[in-house]
Write a structure and sequence with these properties.
The structure is a homodimer of 202-residue chains. Chain A has 202 residues and is mainly alpha-helical. Chain A is built from 9 helices and no strands. The interface between A and B is large, with 48 and 48 residues.
Amino acid sequence: MPAKGLKTKERILTGASQIFNRKGIASTSVNDLLQATQTTRGNLYFHFSGKQELALAVLEREQRLFMEFLDRALAEGTPGEALKRFLRWACLRHQRSRFVGGCLFGNTALEASDTNPAFSALVSQVFNDWTAKIEERVRQAQQTHEIRNDLPAANLATLIVATLEGGIMQARLTKSEAPLKNCLGTLQTLLQLPPNPSSGDK
Amino acid sequence: MPAKGLKTKERILTGASQIFNRKGIASTSVNDLLQATQTTRGNLYFHFSGKQELALAVLEREQRLFMEFLDRALAEGTPGEALKRFLRWACLRHQRSRFVGGCLFGNTALEASDTNPAFSALVSQVFNDWTAKIEERVRQAQQTHEIRNDLPAANLATLIVATLEGGIMQARLTKSEAPLKNCLGTLQTLLQLPPNPSSGDK
């Protein structure tokens, strides 16, 4: 595809991701998409056969970006430091968006679980891969005694992901960081993975 | 209103609640509503001016029913027993629906937070009242040494509600009770509120 076409496709994916996140996929109309992506109907249908194909492409792109984010967050330092960095960065991502939109995967899980098998299969894969990456670091942090080790790493990983999604839901509802920060701070104490006193790093 | 009219209105509210829960409010069409409520267009518009008014009436009714459920779950026994009963009953509610629909308030929180102020105000109220009722029992359970008391009751209550919502999300996505049971079991251990070994009661 020529560079101009690729640029248009990328602009459509970026704009569509934002409007899907804010309104939900099912509630987003083609007119909403044209406005959000600043494109013409002809260009939209040149690149995608319709909303279903576009939404799947958006979800696949966000899946790739989220896995890259996770790998970056979990890459450096001790396993305990990596887990703390992930929780801090997750909170920052939503602060930066001022709690508009929330988590596209959580939103789509609730929107599509009972209605769209293709979307829910992709979102299930995201949750599985996400939980597996957290579980790996939890297991390592248990070996380095940076996190409690009286419970299976898989159970703690599932709890971390669930608490984060529930905290994002409440932060988005109240448009305030308090419920999310509160949940993550409390969770870290319960996990015996206390936040750094000066967690000023990004 | 004559008894027949009240019965029709009740049938509309019950059917609408189920379809809203499964498909989301925005994605539910008037035709979906007619089918789900087994009513005529004339009857539907006799009782409600449109989908917005019907959805608000459904949310208000579900709010009342959920608060009654909470009060029943939290009513008897010691504060610690009351909290454990609530978590067990919450899990059972979703097992019985086979994880179709999930939590109407959680779904509506993610669907309406950025688009429908009337819905999100009502859902915020539900989360506030729910968290306050849990917080009250947590505080009492801290006094009776049935739950850890090194953290504020308000923080533990926020965490309990968030974990439940995140666990329901994952159970609904996988159509399996495992993530929800796993989250709640792990949470109870972390809260030092262990499940009863024989939790066979309803």
